[in-house]
Amino acid sequence: QSYCHRLQHDMYFLTSTSRLNEQVVDKIILQLNRVYPQILTNEEAEKFRNPRASLHTRLSDLLKHLQKKGDRHCQEFYRALQINAEQLFNDLPSRKILKTPDPTEIDTDKEQYMLNDRGPVFFLACFSVAAGLALFWYCCNSDTKVVGRARRILGFSPIIIGRHVRNICMLYLEDISRD
């Protein structure tokens, strides 16, 4: 996508109220006036820095002027915008389109945030509560069938937990079944 098309796409975003203040626009105009090759002549720079006109009008006229001049001029505007207002440059709609090559593709950062908004600590806490309740249910129930079920579950557990831990659990269950 050419810089002129990008600038046309970003024009509404840039000219909306309180995006760019007067000092930043003046810095951009001065930079475009002083770079090599000179993008704006001295007369053009004075016209776009005229304090009698509103900032919105001056900025709109500047962007239209740069689009008429060609792709190189628009590219220099983006460079000046990046130098003088980097945060605004990163928030441009055309930059977001460039970062996502397929507009139908799901933004994985947003999707990941939406699915994992509670974080790993919440998952571990819920898992610990569930495991504790399961262990409490198996060990504290007076029904002997429960101990038998727990024995069967722990019998398949060498893959899940270490043999040492499994042996301790089996000894505990045998002690409970004797009582």
UniProtKB/TrEMBL annotation:
Membrane topology: Single-pass membrane protein
GO cellular component: endoplasmic reticulum membrane; mitochondrial membrane
GO biological process assignments: regulation of apoptotic process
Protein name per UniProt: Caspase recruitment domain-containing protein 19
UniProt KW keywords: Disulfide bond, Endoplasmic reticulum, Membrane, Mitochondrion, Transmembrane, Transmembrane helix
A Pfam cross-reference name: CARD
Protein location: Endoplasmic reticulum membrane; Mitochondrion membrane
Keyword Endoplasmic reticulum appears in the UniProt entry: yes
Species classification: Eukaryota, Metazoa, Chordata, Craniata, Vertebrata
Subunit structure: Associates with BCL10 by CARD-CARD interaction.
PROSITE patterns xref list: CARD (PS50209)
Transmembrane parts of this sequence: 120-138
Keyword Transmembrane tagged: yes
Organism: Neopipo cinnamomea
All copies of domain CARD, residue ranges: 38-96
